[in-house]
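Subject: Protein record for review, amino acid sequence with backbone structure tokens
How to read it: Take the token row as a discrete description of the fold.
Enclosed: The protein record, placed directly beneath this head.
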Amino acid sequence: MSFWTERSVMVTGGAGFLGSHLVRQLEQASARRVFVPRSDAYDLRTWDGIERALSDARPDLIIHLAAVVGGIGANRARPGEFFYDNLMMCTQLMEAARRRGVARYLTVGTICSYPKFTPVPFREEDLWNGYPEETNAPYGLAKKMALVQSAAYRIQYGFDAVNVLLVNLYGPGDNFDPASSHVIPALIKKCVDAIEAGDKQITVWGTGKATREFLYVEDAARALLLAAEKLQTSEPVNIGAGFEISIKALVELIARLAGFKGKLVWDSTKPDGQPRRCLDTSKAEKLLGFRATTRFEEGLARAIEWYKAERAAGHVV
């Protein structure tokens, strides 16, 4: 019998980008039951919505993925919403799970919680050594409070809460809405739009000097299954691919793979965000046996082809 065959799992955010891949892998692992509370039926920002979800799910394990997220533009436009909604979901869901005797709880956090000038590569021990980058600080701090709550609940109540910190993801099924998408889907859409419209140039935010790390979504889902099964402490564990790429190099790579041959114009009046992001993933390899396996260029090509196919079918714009 595998770990999962005995588990009834509730996956918040299970209908989203990462969640849909995670649910598929849980089903492949023969989890006894997988329950996904949809936002139109269960408002996880409210106590009532959480209580009803737990009553219907009857989980012994919760993987908390649900979050209000977005790129730099969305974070700057809606900082209050990003703070409140994420804090309420994280804090109340864990408390309700504790009261109901849920046996195990995994919170999926974010590297936006790291200080703005964290030395590269980011090590878990550096997490509390400063304030996050300003454009995403409300979101990052709201998610960071789950680490405090997990440790406090383990000490006082013996509640088995564990945490991972996830880099930005990419891959098929991503969010391509320009109002809320992250950098990779936003750039893919810009390139494909420009090709279809016959535009000779596209405008990109910032200077291109900032660096980021990206993890293919199926690798991320695999890491979460390992974390839910194997982690034995509330201390956070970085989940990433262990490499960094400049935004300039990223844009040039996406343009080449998408087939855009026009000019790239940098709008330096727009923010770069955090100067550098790259994780030390040695703890994930040691504790979970996890290492990313999807080559970045290969994963990008899959994401681009998925978007083009979905666009041709009229499923996305």
Summary: Residues 4-170+215-243+275-293 form a domain with the Rossmann fold fold (CATH 3.40.50.720). The longest strand covers residues 104-110.
